[in-house]
Amino acid sequence: MLPRIAYSRIGLLLIAGSLACLPGAEAQTVDAQQQLAAGASGEGVVTVLSTTDLEEVGELLSGFRALYPSLRLEYKKENSTIIDERIRREAKGGGISVDLVWSSAMDLQLKLVNDGYAEAYDSPAREALPNWAVWKNQAYGITAEPIGIAYNKRLLSPAQAPRSHADLLRFLRDGAGSLAGRIATYDPERSSVGYLLLMQDLLVTDRTWSLIDAMGLVGVRLFAASGEMLDRVAAGEAVLAYNVIGSYALDRARSAPELGVVLPADYTLVMSRVALIPKGAPHPTAARLFLDYLLSASGQKALAAHAIGSVRGDITADAVAAVPPEAARPIQLSLRLLASLDQAKRTRFMRDWQALVSRQPAR
């Protein structure tokens, strides 16, 4: 079982407040940031490689550019697996081309750190973050995003929508015939995030296999991204989607009244998009400045505007506030994440997964 880690907003505020009260602490921080900004300006550019869609970070990027107009910001979107492969390939070739890597594949990011591909940086925002969101000052969790269920309100009323994993299991078993091909989830073979979430589900409960079995019986449809699943649900092609990233679902639901979002009451996984500075980054000072901005109150509020939950305790975000503390299961940045990347373990999981989901749906 994963430990229950509640969000202690009061505790984090006290920590942040105590630092601000230290004699000269605020002045020292401002001076250090000014020196960092001056150094970054001298480098001239910062290149960010990320899994986050541009429409979700438009305000964030605009805010950074407004603060540091002399620094050119290049933002590139890519799949998490491709990002991981690119950093490893470039490092071995002796030429890292990006300054900061920001990915939702928490396990792959941690493995980059563990394999020696990341620089250490003691961000001044460190003390405002929960312990689970930082690893050796080399990997920083930037967000706190619940994982949930999206459903079509025209096909399911809020009262009919599953409210827990046990509800979802009953829902699938009871409606096996009518749900054929109308349930969506991540394809763990194509999506690193999808695989990570299923591994975390299994750490919470081995009844996850029963859920996978039930999805297989209804002929679950598999996708590589949350956005694709939400498209199908909004169009009515899928009744619901399991393990969608809550920030995407909640943000989409603001303009799509047909979309409903459930954060399971029994437990809700909370993932984080993890940032690191690759060793050998061409503009490391600019990378530190951008990382600090990601973790700053301004940066976190820009993300929260798109329902992307803040990892800081002093920023209110609907996505995080909607999760009862007793149900929250943050995915911790720890060596435990690396266990799921063991090749033998992954091979066994994929074998068992395929055996269940490749069957013909029940009629």
Write the layout of secondary structure elements.
Elements: H1 9-21, H2 25-43, E1 45-50, H3 54-67, E2 72-77, H4 80-93, E3 100-103, H5 106-114, E4 118-119, E5 134-135, E6 139-141, E7 145-152, H6 165-174, E8 183-186, H7 192-204, H8 208-217, E9 221-223, H9 226-235, E10 240-245, H10 246-253, E11 259-262, E12 268-271, E13 274-278, H11 284-295, H12 297-304, H13 318-321, E14 328-330, H14 343-357
Parallel strand pairs: 1-2, 1-3, 8-9, 8-10, 12-14
Antiparallel strand pairs: 3-13, 4-13, 5-6, 6-13, 7-10, 7-11, 7-12
Helix pairs in contact: 2-11, 3-12, 6-8
Give a written overview of the molecule.
The chain has helices at residues 9-21, 25-43, 54-67, 80-93, 106-114, 165-174, 192-204, 208-217, 226-235, 246-253, 284-295, 297-304, 318-321, 343-357; strands spanning 45-50, 72-77, 100-103, 118-119, 134-135, 139-141, 145-152, 183-186, 221-223, 240-245, 259-262, 268-271, 274-278, 328-330. The protein has 363 residues and is α/β, with parallel strands linked by helices. Strands 1, 2, 3, 4, 5, 6 and 13 form a 7-stranded mixed beta sheet that branches. Strands 7, 8, 9, 10, 11, 12 and 14 form a 7-stranded mixed beta sheet that branches. Helix 2 (25-43) packs across helix 11, helix 3 (54-67) packs antiparallel against helix 12 (297-304) and helix 6 (165-174) packs parallel to helix 8. The longest helix has 19 residues, at 25-43. The protein is globular and about 65 Å long. The two termini are 35 Å apart.
